[in-house]
Amino acid sequence: MSEPSINTQQDATISVDASEAITPRSASTSSESDRTYAIVTYALYLSAPLFLITPFIALIMGYVQRSKAGPLLASHYHFQIRSFWISTLLGLGLLLATVFGAMLMVIGIGFLITGAAYLAMLVLGIWYYVRMVVGLVRIINHEPITNPRSWMV
Questions:
Q1: Residues 103, 110 contacting (CB under 8 angstroms)
Q2: Mean pLDDT throughout 10-33?
Q3: What is d(CA 101, CA 29) in angstroms, rounded to the nearest whole number?
């Protein structure tokens, strides 16, 4: 009686090995399409000055894909989402500072506030695009974002 159970176990082992041989190929195809998806989201973030809606589309795509992604892609989606929210919130704050500065131009100090806000917007824009380009280069090279929670690249 013990001999048939041994054969059954060997057959099960062979079938498991056969299924494992098929899985890596489908996993690499899935991974490549997921990586392409992440590259597209970077492209959407980079096209923000041309089409103001594209960062919002990329944000939604990132939130949807982040929960399904592996560690490599999850680091990129987290990095993208964090970059979006930091730049959006700081940008809105700087926009309010510009409006506040415009109202104070009658006194004269408004020129300083508005000038500083414009300079900060320029720095924020450079910061945003450096992060997006560095992230794009890293995803193309199959590298994760080392610290997606950092404010730096």
A1: yes
A2: 44
A3: 53
